């Protein structure tokens, strides 16, 4: 991982011609968020425009849970390959900052287009909403729930097509509680679903659909359905479902939005029902949505590695050294084996089960993986398996351990086992 790049350009003029890592010419500041800055840049070799998101490492060490959020966001974005989600190309780092190199959306935020035009026709809104739902359906089918869908996080590319961005608050199945629900209170106030406010747990898919309903209403009406300067009054309106339609919307639109903004998540419209709704389907909707089946505990579905995945295994995507609290070490090691994935995982599980004070569980962030955690808090180890070719698999081991006393299980038990299984 490169670590000596000068970061002073971040505060300097955009026209100073600074080239990041000799690869990306920094052009202009495109946006500033609460925790990051986004720049428009150009690839030196091809001239292609990219977006570069810069995150301060100082904030990682001073903001509780932020390092885990960044690691989760990068992990999720690496897996997103959809026409209407922003692609992540590369992750780079210096001593002071982490940089995401991403797909550039030349049209900017959808919010600006709504603000300048006042509102959209139902036909134009339907086109963007179909693209939004196709992206959301894709994310949900891959176990990813955005949790912060809003107009500011919807971009438009040079073809005027939608791109969903900012997966910083996204959750995967590993964030589910024992009740199968999410419990973190997050999101943007005007877009937050009532069940989040109830603080009793919620389903990620249902809250995303609610936010999609707020987005659709806003781009057609020209104003938010729930809005108030007083946050208490705002939340009361959301919880009670109090909003008014403008006079110019159609009856079908009202009926459809009322199902998206149903206060009861149990009766709120689902993705499958959205895809069949008359208002949504008017004019045709042909984008295929492939749902990934749930896996049984005893079944292993391996992800085949493509060229992008192999690149991802290189230092350009290896962020293990970037998110380290001073008390911990983060390490990644990989082994190539001819053993069957089921056999590898079973032997890892058995070894973990034999140890005292070790929790062994399925890794919900991987198609084939197991997670081992020391109950004294000294270490967490994730073992994941990927198909390299018909006869070979890659065993990837990610470890987070305390500098003192956290590595004994790895050095004396697990690593020797994996070396035994690896090709020599």
TrEMBL record:
Gene3D superfamilies: Kinase associated domain 1, KA1, Phosphorylase Kinase, domain 1, Transferase(Phosphotransferase) domain 1. The keyword Nucleotide-binding applies. CDD domains: CIPK_C (cd12195). The keyword Membrane does not apply. SUPFAM superfamilies: Protein kinase-like (PK-like). Keywords: ATP-binding, Kinase, Nucleotide-binding, Serine/threonine-protein kinase, Transferase. Residues 24-280 form the Protein kinase domain. GO terms for molecular function: ATP binding; protein serine/threonine kinase activity. Its cofactor is Mn(2+). Residues 300-324 form the NAF domain. Its EC number is 2.7.11.1. It is an enzyme of class 2 (transferase). PROSITE patterns: NAF, PROTEIN_KINASE_DOM, PROTEIN_KINASE_ST. GO terms for biological process: signal transduction. CIPK serine-threonine protein kinases interact with CBL proteins. Binding of a CBL protein to the regulatory NAF domain of CIPK protein lead to the activation of the kinase in a calcium-dependent manner. Belongs to the protein kinase superfamily. CAMK Ser/Thr protein kinase family. SNF1 subfamily. PANTHER family: CALCIUM/CALMODULIN-DEPENDENT PROTEIN KINASE KINASE-RELATED, CBL-INTERACTING SERINE_THREONINE-PROTEIN KINASE 14. This is non-specific serine/threonine protein kinase. The lineage of its organism: Eukaryota, Viridiplantae, Streptophyta, Embryophyta, Tracheophyta.
């Amino acid at each position: 991982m490169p670590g000596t790049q000068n970061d002073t350009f971040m505060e300097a003029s955009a026209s100073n011609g600074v080239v990041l890592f000799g690869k990306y010419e920094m052009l202009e500041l495109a946006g500033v968020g609460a925790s990051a800055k986004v720049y428009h840049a150009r690839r030196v070799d091809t001239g292609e425009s990219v977006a570069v998101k810069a995150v301060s490492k100082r904030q990682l060490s001073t903001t509780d849970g932020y390092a885990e959020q960044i690691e989760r966001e990068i992990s999720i974005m690496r897996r997103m390959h959809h026409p209407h989600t922003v692609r992540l190309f590369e992750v780079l780092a210096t001593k002071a900052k982490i940089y995401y190199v991403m797909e550039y959306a030349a049209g900017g935020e959808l919010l600006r287009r709504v603000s300048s035009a006042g509102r959209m026709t139902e036909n134009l809104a339907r086109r963007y909403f179909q693209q939004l739902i196709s992206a959301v359906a894709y994310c949900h089918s891959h176990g990813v729930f955005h949790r912060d869908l809003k107009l500011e996080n919807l971009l438009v590319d040079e073809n005027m097509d939608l791109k969903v961005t900012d997966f910083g608050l996204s959750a995967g199945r590993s964030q589910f509680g024992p009740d199968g629900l999410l419990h973190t209170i997050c999101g943007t106030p005007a877009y937050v679903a009532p069940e989040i406010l109830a603080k009793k747990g919620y389903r990620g898919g249902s809250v995303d659909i609610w936010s999609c309903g707020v987005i659709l209403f806003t781009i057609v009406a020209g104003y938010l359905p729930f809005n108030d300067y007083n946050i208490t009054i705002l939340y009361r309106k959301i919880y009670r479902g109090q909003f008014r339609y403008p006079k110019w919307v159609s009856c079908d639109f009202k009926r459809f939005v009322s199902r998206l903004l149903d206060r009861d998540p149990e009766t709120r419209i689902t993705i499958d029902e959205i895809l069949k709704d008359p208002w949504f389907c008017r004019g045709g909707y042909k984008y295929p949505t492939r749902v990934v089946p749930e896996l049984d505990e005893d079944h292993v579905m391996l992800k085949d590695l493509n060229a992008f995945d192999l690149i991802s295994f290189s230092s350009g995507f290896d962020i293990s050294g970037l998110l380290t609290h001073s008390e911990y070490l983060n390490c990644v090691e990989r082994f190539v084996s001819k053993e069957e994935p089921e056999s590898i995982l079973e032997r890892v599980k058995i070894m973990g089960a034999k140890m005292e004070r070790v929790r062994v569980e399925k890794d919900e962030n991987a198609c084939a993986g197991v997670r081992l955690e020391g109950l004294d808090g000294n270490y967490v180890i994730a073992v994941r398996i990927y198909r390299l070719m018909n006869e070979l698999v890659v065993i990837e081991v990610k470890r987070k351990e305390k500098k003192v006393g956290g590595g004994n299980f790895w050095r004396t038990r697990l690593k020797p086992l994996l070396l035994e299984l690896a090709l020599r």
